[in-house]
Amino acid sequence: MKETYSILLIAVLSLFSSQTSGQNMTDSLLRKDNIKLSSIDFNIIKFDSNYHYIFPDTFKKTDLSEDEIILIEILLRKMIIQYNIDAEKKFVMMDSKFPKYGLKLKDFTIELDDYGRQFMAVISDEGKKIVYVGCFCDPKKFGYRTKELVQVMDGGKCYFEFKIDLETRQIFEFSENGVG
Q1: Is residue 48 part of a domain?
Q2: DSSP state at residue 3
Q3: Does the residue 108 lie in any domain?
Q4: Which of 47, 53, 81, 88 has a CB 3.0–4.6 Å from the CB of 61, allowing a cystine?
Q5: What share of the chain is helix, strand, coil (3-state, %, to 5)?
Q6: Between these two residues, 18 and 28, which has the higher pLDDT value?
Q7: How many distinct structural domains can be found in the chain?
Q8: Which residues of 85-100 are buried (b: 16+ CB within 10 A; e: fewer)?
Q9: Where are any strands of DSSP class E within the chain?
Q10: Quick count: other Cβ atoms within 10 Å of Cβ 106?
């Protein structure tokens, strides 16, 4: 009986330790001082009437400070942590249903180090600062990414976009491209 309690205690401590280290890793990813903008391929695209399908023409272009870019990156990382948790569940379900397809977890999850980002900041009619964020795989193949938005058809998880209200820190209108 004493052995059973010892094994149970070890299992509980192990579970707690792995959850704690996982949380520590997540906390570390989201710390402001762990974000090095120089290591991120990002570009700021100025809003103009050509992008009326993203924001209404009445919105005004604005700039982003370094602190705001870091905040965007923190919110993006937080969103992708949850995205990858959900993607792993989807992978497990799909892999168990279709084992003969040889599915790979990496085909379901997003590794942000492999993505470029584009930011477009505006002030809404209500005075809120809202940022469009476009993310895409293999940024080097888009030489024009410094001047205009990267836009493609299909591509799945390689291309996704969303908006952030910087005041409320809310992400909305998340969209991932389809697979063609």
Answers
A1: yes
A2: H
A3: yes
A4: 47
A5: 50, 20, 30
A6: 28
A7: 1
A8: eebeeebeeeeeeeee
A9: 42-44, 60-61, 115-123, 129-137, 159-165, 170-176
A10: 10
Residue 33 lies in a domain: no
C-alpha–C-alpha distance, residues 30 and 71, integer Å: 9
Model pLDDT, residue 19: 45
pLDDT at 177 exceeding the cut of 90: no
Query: Nearest CA to 129 among 77, 84, 62, 71?
Result: 62
Which band of pLDDT confidence, cut at 50, 70 and 90, is reported for residue 180?
Answer: low
What is the spatial distance between Cα 29 and Cα 16, in angstroms, rounded to a whole number?
20
Hey, what are 30's tokens?
Answer: 């989201």
Q: What is the pLDDT of residues 55-107, one digit of tens each?
A: 999 999 999 999 999 999 999 999 999 999 999 999 999 999 999 999 999 99
Residue with tokens 């205009």: 148
Range of the structural domain that residue 85 is part of: 41-176
pLDDT on residue 155: 77
Is-contact 96 132, C-beta < 8 A?
no
| pLDDT tens by residue, 129-171 | 999 999 999 898 888 899 999 988 877 788 999 999 999 999 9
d(C-alpha 88, C-alpha 80), whole Å: 12
Tokens 């705001």, residue located: 68
CA–CA distance from 148 to each of 90, 116, 117 (Å)? 34, 13, 12
Instruction: For residues 110 and 140, give the distance between their C-alpha atoms in angstroms, rounded to a whole number.
Output: 17
